[in-house]
Amino acid sequence: MRFKSSLAFALLATVFFAFPAKGHDLLIDIQPASEAVLTEGSFEAKLTFNNPLLVVEGETNAELSTKPVGSVDWVSHEIVVMDSVLTAQINLNESGDYDLRWKVVSSDGHPISGESTFTLELGSSEEQETEAPILIAPAPTQEQDSGGSMVGFYIGLAMVVLGIIFAPIGLMIRRRARKS
Predict the structure, then answer these.
(1) pLDDT tens digits along 32-84
(2) If you average pLDDT over residues 76-105, what whole number do you get?
(3) To bridge 77 with a disulfide, which of 63, 69, 88, 93 should be the other Cys (CB 3.0-4.6 Å)?
(4) CB proximity list for 61: less than 8 A, separation 6 or greater
(5) Residue of 91, 116, 89, 117 lying closest to 103 (CA atoms)
């Protein structure tokens, strides 16, 4: 009986002190680079990761959006994922500082995300009006926080493991009580 309780305690300690894996994929290059100064409003954003991104049945579950610094309205851009590279064509028509935000699902199935800032310095407004085409941006998206989903996952996993550990112990105690 002492061995079984020691085993149960060891399994319980493993569940409580288990840490999530830190082997998620990493962003290894981003263009435009953080703090870059661009002079053209039409450019390609290119993010390169250390492993291929997860694509399931044609769905990438990836996002790339921009907004002027100080604004709350993010504008999503259409993306293309090829192996470990995510690209998006960005068309901006106003000079200023911009935030670029990305979120992808890494090859291990975990979401990873990040932000970067760049500056757009266009020529005079007369040049821009005569040379730049009229651009229509997609509707702004609302920011969503998915940070709580992983906490819920780990709590649920702990509950299942505890059930697996304590169910047999409870059954053994119940059987011994009946025999007595």
Answers:
(1) 999 999 999 999 999 999 988 887 777 778 899 999 999 999 999 999 988 88
(2) 92
(3) 88
(4) 54, 104, 105, 111
(5) 116
Under 8 Å CB-to-CB from 43, ≥6 apart: which residues?
Answer: 32, 89, 90
Report residue 81: phi and psi, to 5°. Answer: -115, 125
DSSP H or E stretch at residue 12:
helix 2-17
Q: Give the pLDDT band (50/70/90) at residue 158.
A: confident
Are 97 and 91 within 8 A, CB to CB? no
For the entire predicted model, the pTM comes to: 0.56
3: enclosing H helix or E strand:
helix 2-17
Over its C-alpha atoms, the chain yields an Rg (Å, rounded) of: 25
Averaged pLDDT of the chain? 79
Class of domain 23-144: mainly beta
CB-based contacts of 81: which residues, under 8 Å, 6+ apart? 53, 55, 60, 62, 104
**141: CB partners within 8 A, 6+ apart:** 65, 74, 75, 76
Per the listing, tokens 């757009």 go with 120
**Residue 65 backbone phi and psi in degrees, to 5:** -145, 160
Q: Where are the domains of the chain?
A: 23-144
